[in-house]
User: Fold this.
Amino acid sequence: MKKRKIGIGTTSLVLFIIGSLFAFTFNKVCIGDNILNYIGLKSWSNGNQGTHYTLLFYIPSLIIGYKFNDNFGSKVGNILSTIMVTIIIVTSLLFTAII
Assistant:
């Protein structure tokens, strides 16, 4: 079994974890929204709807995991980011089609 080293690809998993913390709501409080509002940034593209800016974590995670796939955690970060980006795109398209 080959032991993988920590490198640039490891940030893929780190970015996915940070993006997940920013995206999900715990006890009716979205930590990411609160952090972004605190530093003066918007978390949504159109008030409280539109595109949630957590994609800014998942897309780089996907790219870094793909480019540096021999580092520790990069494959997991790449796979999980791919799943999340796919879910976000599909749900966005479905909600757009419904409205």
Summary: The longest strand covers residues 49-52. Helices lie at 10-23, 31-38, 55-67, 74-98.
